[in-house]
UniProtKB/TrEMBL annotation:
A UniProt-annotated Pfam family: polyprenyl_synt
CDD domains listed in its UniProt record: Trans_IPPS_HT
InterPro entries for this protein: GerC3_HepT, Isoprenoid_synthase_dom_sf, Polyprenyl_synt, Polyprenyl_synt_CS
Keyword tRNA processing tagged: no
Keyword list, A-Z: Magnesium, Metal-binding, Transferase
Family stated for the protein in its record: Belongs to the FPP/GGPP synthase family.
Gene3D superfamilies cross-referenced by the UniProt entry: Farnesyl Diphosphate Synthase
Protein name per Swiss-Prot or TrEMBL: Heptaprenyl diphosphate synthase component II
Gene name per UniProt: hepT
Amino acid sequence: MEKVKLKLLYSDLKPELDMIEKELEQAVDSKSHLLNDASLHLLQAGGKRIRPVFVLLAGKFGNYNIDVMKQVAVPLELIHMASLVHDDVIDDSDIRRGKPTVKAEWNNSVAMYTGDFILARALEYITDIDSPKLHHILSKTMIEVCRGEIIQIEDKYKLDQNLRDYLRRIKRKTALLISSSCELGALVSGTDEKTAAHLRRFGYFIGMSFQIIDDILDFTSTDEELGKPAGSDFIQGNITLPVLCARRDPEVYSLLKNSLQKELTDKERLLVVKTIRNSPGISEAKAVSERYLKKALQELDYLPKSPANKTMRKIAFFIGKRKF
């Protein structure tokens, strides 16, 4: 139901998004049946497609041409997809979006090469855009995303990390790709530098808010709503903002510390989830998300009033209150 509500916010883009969906299917098509099956397995599991949406909306501030816009929207979603396939190997995750992951359905080797294949397809698409500047922005973003993944591995199971550690991680893990979606959508449609900069910052702030809400939902949603066990991030050793805020309580800190040092039973996992869910950590994390959301909306204030501006604003409000 929540995904339906989100899609209604940008229902005006449905014809273009349907076109991009078909392009994504064509992009992962190859002569290998195994690669086709593994790639389509993730693609057909669904997703919010929020990155293509931001590419298209940003393009509405310039000279919008869907045949050009899709050459940016498709690779941005492909890069996101490739990162998910690789993440599931690193995190040893069996379930994503309520379905078996590629690595669970096949194995780690197939998953790693499928991720590499999808990433290569993304690069193939973007080279049709004759713009070294655009290529530079995207490659720099991909480098930072990789750095973020390495930082996440280094920070795993470290309960005593600080807020800056967390923020630098989610910046690279999520915010930069959304930020680049907005900036590249603006640049490829020929907006001026100032407009592109406001859209880049909007994407960054909304990306930070989006990830914090994601980390909150890991504790406040049910297994069924998430399509995976609640508290999965914590079980995998990822210390998120609700945990950082909740750990100030000595009793909670002790529970979390002990829980990170062993493999949890389902009963123990649910105790951790319930403890965080009932702690002030949830409301404190929401307050941080709200601050990023407010900054995102301020960036839109600098841009011309338009249907695209209005839709971006609605999506921003929705992200701040989303329940999936």
